[in-house]
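hey
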């Protein structure tokens, strides 16, 4: 393949083209529905998310879950868990759970539109904001990749970031685990410390037993993730249908 030489002219062209494709939908919904509308908020939030987060879908979801549930109140913790389960069990990248979030937010605050069509518009805006930014960074940074790979200082920084991403994913696992096992989760705020604290008397014993059994099957018997998901998905569906 031909080598593309980096240049300021090329970089500015990439920024203009992909930056315009990124900004135009936000201007359209802001001028049409208002800058304080859910549509504008959804597009601005997921644009910001696309810029400041990296490390894979699990690292992104920790930030999105916190903001969408706690800060904006677009959906409940249980619905965020439903979105993750839907993304895990359907084809396509896991990050498409963001489309689920982008659908529910305007579905409940439709700015005068039919809620279903408002949800579709929110889902489309979310998907566009999430993926168009990727093309901007890919085309902008591609000519510099080989040069950056040989930079030892940058390689060391990326190794440190990788370790931090592991911590972020652990935080996501704890957040989802608490909201699965406990029906109510509070917050402990002490100075700069702000952590989730379960309300112990609201424990869901069935969910706890299923989580423990699933962990045993995955880590001890090693029957495989697909079989485990199929088995406990069927158990969850069966128990949900019980009176």
């Amino acid at each position: 393949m031909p080598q593309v030489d980096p240049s300021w002219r090329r970089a500015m062209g990439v920024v203009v083209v992909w930056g315009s494709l990124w900004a135009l939908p936000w201007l359209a919904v802001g001028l049409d529905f208002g800058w304080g509308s859910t549509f504008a908020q959804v597009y601005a939030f997921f644009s910001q998310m696309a810029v400041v987060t990296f490390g894979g879908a699990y690292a992104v979801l920790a930030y999105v879950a916190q903001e969408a549930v706690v800060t904006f109140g677009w959906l409940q913790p249980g619905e965020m868990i439903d979105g993750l389960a839907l993304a895990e069990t359907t084809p396509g990248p896991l990050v498409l759970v963001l489309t689920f979030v982008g659908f529910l937010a305007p579905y409940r605050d439709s700015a005068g539109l039919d809620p279903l069509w408002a949800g579709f518009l929110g889902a489309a805006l979310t998907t566009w904001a999430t993926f168009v930014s990727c093309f901007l960074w890919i085309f902008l940074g591609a000519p510099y990749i080989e040069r950056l790979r040989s930079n030892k200082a940058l390689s060391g920084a990326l190794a440190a970031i990788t370790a931090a991403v592991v911590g972020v994913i652990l935080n996501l696992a704890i957040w989802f685990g608490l909201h699965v096992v406990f029906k109510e989760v509070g917050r402990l705020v002490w100075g700069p410390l702000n952590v989730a604290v379960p309300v112990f008397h609201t424990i869901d014993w069935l969910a706890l037993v299923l989580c423990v059994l699933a962990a045993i099957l995955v880590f001890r018997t090693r029957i495989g993730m697909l079989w485990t998901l199929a088995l406990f998905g069927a158990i969850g569906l069966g128990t949900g249908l019980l009176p």
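Residues 171-241 form one domain. The chain has a mean pLDDT of 83.
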